[in-house]
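Entry 12.
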Amino acid sequence: MTSTIAVTGKSGSGKSTAVYCLANLLKEKFKDKSILLVDNDLTGELAGFFGITTDKTIYGIRSGKHEYNTGIPSKMTKQEYIEWALEDILIEVDSNIDIIVSWLVASKDCRCPITKQMNDALVKLVERYDFVVFDCEYDLSYLHQLVDFPIDTTLLILNSETNSVELAHRLFESSKKYASQGQFGVILNKIKNETTNKLQEALSSIGLTLLGVIPDFGENIDKESFKNALSAMYTRLNLPQG
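Predicted 3D structure (tokens):
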């Protein structure tokens, strides 16, 4: 059974760093489990954390602009073709860790057949993995336009900006209908100790749970320390405990 995690937040909040570190934490805890990372963020920077660049995207398949590595097999149905094409853009970035990049997505209001065909193909892809981590563009609504799949845990990455609690409330309101009940939590990133209690009280007042805090490491992100901070809060996530 697939366990799914969606990481949300505004651009620059540390979402992609959190996804990268969470993937490596899961790899350490579950050595034989498969992990898929879905880059649903329009910046498309997640692959760069693994030292790779790619212009192969789900949007490229949908728009017909993707250039395939091999010839297209003959006598496939449209559904089989889309599933085959997704395999063509899937990238192995580490042992047991693959990544696929979305870029632009279509509205669920689009009635063209490929919208449902792409959704069905992505559902089949997601179901093949033990863990799937989505790097989201802002909230869950954009992810839902890409693929309709249950999300076990939604993590909102937040920093100490003056409007951060207001932002958290907006993100929660726009995402909650796509998130599992009671599994929407906040991780504070780049936080100094003196601001934690104040932010926690404000989050609690709007019904949000603080799962943990990532310290302010300065300008140079310490990915190992970031991963260790995620490890310390792992038991509070709605995920297998190992």
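Annotation: The mean pLDDT is 90. The chain is about 35% helix and 20% strand.
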